[in-house]
User: Fold this.
Amino acid sequence: MSNRIFVLREKGRGNYVPYFLEMDEIIFCSFATAKVLIHTSTEVFLFPHNVTHFEYIEGFVKTDRPFVVNWKHVKGYDEKWSQLSFNNSTDLVNVSGKHKRKIKELIIELQKILEDTPNE
Assistant:
């Protein structure tokens, strides 16, 4: 199985070129105005398919209707605002009520892993 996906990279206003993006580079995906946007630490790409495609990929987690995140990039969870933050990105992603329990469980797992990881 390939670790890359086909996306469209904007080259000039409204002009797109095909591009193969490494899955590890994806921080999160969002659905906005009838298109799926793939957010990385440096660029936003257009994905020519449905955002639900990512819900079935290991390591990707749905947090709200328009958002699917790559869990390996999650830095923390703000419970007051119900938002996830990421390493290498200032973007925040909402967590809806129906996904809060799952996200809290994953955050607890992430904290345990970080506590067990020796500092280098």
The chain has a mean pLDDT of 89. The two ends are 33 Å apart (CA to CA).
